[in-house]
Amino acid sequence: MKRQFREFGGDRPLFTLTPVQVVGGFTLDPAQTNLTKGAVIPAGTLSHVDENTRLAQLIKSARVVAIAAGDAKVVTLESDEFSKPIFTINDLIGKDLTATLANTPKITAIAETADGMQITLSKAITGLAVGDALFEVVADGTNVKLLAEPNSITITDIEVKEAGDTGIDVTRNTGNGEAYARRLPPVPASLLEGNVLKGTKVAYTYSL
């Protein structure tokens, strides 16, 4: 299996020190079909890995950088040469996990602009503001939840391949270092204990 890796250092490091990689590697769960072949999964993406099946599920997220003045359903997400959101049309999107399914919009259109990835929602998200984070959610009865409970984050940029052929490498432990939170996809506040992703030893710093 051919994989592409981004170094942990360089001109724009993502971690203060090299994180501890989970041995063995995983494969993107073929059941997660709402990822476009050729799309690049950003390093730092929240993931849930299963040690028994060796499959990984990814939790999509991105930061809001603009909301159209005349139409709150048109939202621009942070997207640049370093990292692009991996949302697709028909993804359910929420800013937290307290919304009901009935009030949770879908993405109906996506366009790349000079300011970032512009998404159009089926309905506006009440109270959404610039700087907020948006997350992919799935139905949970009449409510919503994340696709899976994250227990790790990806450590490199990864190109989506054919079903069953996308290798995923993750960490559950940033060791003596930390991950640069502002350079990675956002994490729901409810999943953090202080600056650490719950259930892991992944620590974040907001220094950059």
How many strands, which pairing sense, and closed or not: the largest β-sheet?
Answer: 7 strands, mixed
Radius of gyration: 16 Å
The percentage helix is under 10%
Strand-pairing-aware structural class: mainly beta
What's the rounded overall pLDDT mean? 93
- Our count of helices gives 0
Ranges with pLDDT <50 over ≥5 residues?
1-7
The overall strand count is 20
Query: From N to C, what is the helix and strand string?
Result: EEEEEEEEEEEEEEEEEEEE
Q: Which strand order do you get reading across the main beta sheet? A: 1-16-13-4-5-2-15
Number of domains: 1
Strand residues, percent: 35-45%
The shape is globular
Q: Quote the distance from N terminus to C terminus.
A: 34 Å
Structural summary, described in words:
The protein is built from no helices and 20 strands. A hairpin with a 2-residue loop joins strand 9 and strand 10. The protein is mostly beta strands. The chain has a seven-stranded mixed beta sheet with strand order 1-16-13-4-5-2-15, with no helix packed on it. Strands 6, 7, 8, 9, 10, 11 and 12 form a seven-stranded antiparallel beta sheet that branches. Strands 3-14 form a two-stranded antiparallel sheet. It has one domain.
